[in-house]
Specification:
Order of helices and strands: EHHEHHEHHEHHEEHHHEEEEEHEHEEEH
Radius of gyration: 21 Å
Pfam family, one: Glyco_hydro_1
GO molecular function, one term: beta-glucosidase activity
CATH architecture: Alpha-Beta Barrel
Shape: globular
Protein name: 6-phospho-beta-glucosidase
Number of strands: 15
Strand content: 5-15%
Largest sheet: 8 strands, parallel, barrel
Structural class: alpha/beta
CATH superfamily: Glycosidases
Number of domains: 1
Organism: Faecalibacillus intestinalis
Strand order of the largest sheet: 1-2-3-4-5-7-12-13
Helix content: 25-40%
Distance between the termini: 14 Å
CATH class: Alpha Beta
CATH topology: TIM Barrel
Family: Belongs to the glycosyl hydrolase 1 family.
Length: 472
């Protein structure tokens, strides 16, 4: 591993910060979701209902505990810490012309605290935190006007924090909305609420194109402000394997990967790939994409590829000559790998496969900005948490990551473990699905002292960082 490898941890503002209405912050999309759980989905509400629990409103109160938490990150030896800037803390409604100074000051102070402790901030601009005002007023990213709103937000952040933050990403897991049937994914990615009878697929593709244009414009502006800034994209990388070497399975996997990862071709190459142009034409989608937009895409290519990796998928062919893919119906079990208690496939070798696939295709530096193991942790009477299962999972993935770098020659900037401190689950809003090295005393119903304590994995990861990955 390179000597300046960026070991660290990752969270998102909406899953840790809390302080949802402090010092001028507006409501964001995640603030509008209730808690879910077994047999219960998170509900999206139009207003804050008095008898519902909104777990992101307090989260783990990082807003007031960040100095304590950063001290623990330093003790572990973090070289970097990935989080996001809550857009609604800077532009409460999203379309203001002037930012909220109190919101900017919070991140000034938090970034200074990280740097004082030798930790580089790695910052995502839009991580499921777009202002809810943009949903109410414009319908979210279905509206072209959001391009200017995002670019204004990005420019303010680049100008303000250019000497504190080197590594940036524009949109978190922009490709999650490839499954346009998933209401929460589309709402948190793009702020879109569908009406009866709308063509969901066409609307989501249009929103994604507007986001990609906004990202490209932001990249160009960042480089003009400070050429030393590194601006990346962020993908949810779930490689889709063919179930077998049957040519139908192979082709189905090609089509599936097209649908999930075409966003990367735009981010990294500045073009709409031919297979997507053909798809749009075949579907009869008359998408709003101007010559000026195409030029913006061409001149706003990213500097590196950030991605999350938790699992791989598999798919079987069906003889469809158009290579169409529907994520809800076209996946199948992979008999060669196991699953977590949440049903997520465990495939450490898939991380090596992913790193090779990406580097072969784009020849850009990469950054693993999410990888982690969610589990129900048992806190013992003495306060300890024996999470050997988490250590085992991370160890296997780091071993495969090292092979990709040391044997395969992949250019990798860093590795940040997701949920390095326990945080609110994005998918269910629960606390019991824990990822962290640091236990936070908080329960699904919002009760708890918020006291922080170390799990066994804390000392293990500390040793991994100390030895640059040599001791696992």
């Amino acid at each position: 591993m390179r000597k300046d490898f960026l070991w660290g941890g990752a969270v998102a503002a909406h899953q840790v910060e809390g302080g949802y209405n402090e010092k001028g912050k507006g409501l964001n999309v995640s603030d509008m979701m209730t808690v879910g759980g077994v047999g219960k989905k998170r509900q999206i509400t139009d207003t804050i209902l008095p008898n519902e629990f909104y777990p992101n409103h307090e989260a783990i109160d990082f807003y007031h505990h960040y100095k304590e938490d950063i001290a623990l990150f330093k003790e572990m030896g973090f070289k970097c810490f990935r989080t996001s800037i809550s857009w609604a803390r800077i532009f409460p409604q999203g379309d203001e012309l002037e930012p909220n100074e109190d919101g900017l000051k919070f991140y000034d102070e938090m970034f200074d605290e990280l740097l004082k402790n030798g930790i580089q901030p790695v910052i995502t601009l839009s991580h499921f935190e777009m202002p809810y005002g943009l949903v109410k007023k414009y319908g979210g990213w279905r509206n072209r006007k959001l391009i200017d709103c995002f670019v204004r937000f990005a420019k303010v952040c680049f100008e303000r924090y250019q000497h504190q933050v080197k590594y940036w990403m524009t949109f978190n897991e922009i490709n999650n909305q490839a499954n346009y049937k998933a209401d929460v994914a589309v709402f948190t990615n793009s702020g879109i609420l569908f009406e009866e009878g709308e063509d969901r697929e066409a609307i989501v593709y249009q929103a994604a194109l507007y986001e990609l244009i906004a990202s490209a414009k932001a990249v160009k502006i960042a480089h003009e402000i400070n050429p030393d800034l590194m601006i990346g994209c962020m993908m949810a990388m779930t490689p889709i394997y063919p179930y077998s070497c049957n040519p139908d399975d192979m082709l189905k996997a090609v089509g599936a990967n097209h649908k999930r990862f075409w966003y990367l071709d735009v981010h990294a190459r500045g073009i709409i790939p031919g297979y997507m142009k053909s798809f749009f034409k075949r579907k009869g989608y008359d998408l709003d994409l101007t010559q000026e937009d195409l030029e913006a895409l061409k001149h706003g290519c990213v500097d590196y590829i950030g991605f999350s990796y938790y699992m791989s998928f598999a798919t079987k062919g069906d003889g469809n000559i158009n290579l169409d893919y529907d994520e809800e119906n076209d996946l199948c079990d992979n008999p060669y790998i196991q699953k977590t208690q949440w049903g997520w496939p465990i495939d450490a070798k898939g991380l090596r496969y992913t790193l090779n696939w990406l580097y072969d295709r784009y020849q850009l530096p990469m950054f693993i900005v999410e990888n982690g193991f969610g589990a129900i942790d048992q806190k013992e009477v003495d306060g300890s948490v024996h999470d050997q299962y988490r250590i085992d999972y991370l160890k296997e993935h780091i071993q495969e990551m090292k092979k990709a770098v040391d044997i395969d020659g992949v250019d990798l900037l860093g590795y940040t473990v997701w949920g390095c401190i326990d945080c609110v689950s994005f998918s269910t809003g629960e606390m019991k699905k824990r990822y962290g090295f640091i236990y936070v005393d908080k329960n699904n119903d919002g009760s708890g002292s918020l006291k922080r304590s170390k799990k066994d994995s804390f000392e293990w990861y500390k040793k991994v960082i100390e030895t640059n990955g040599e001791v696992l």
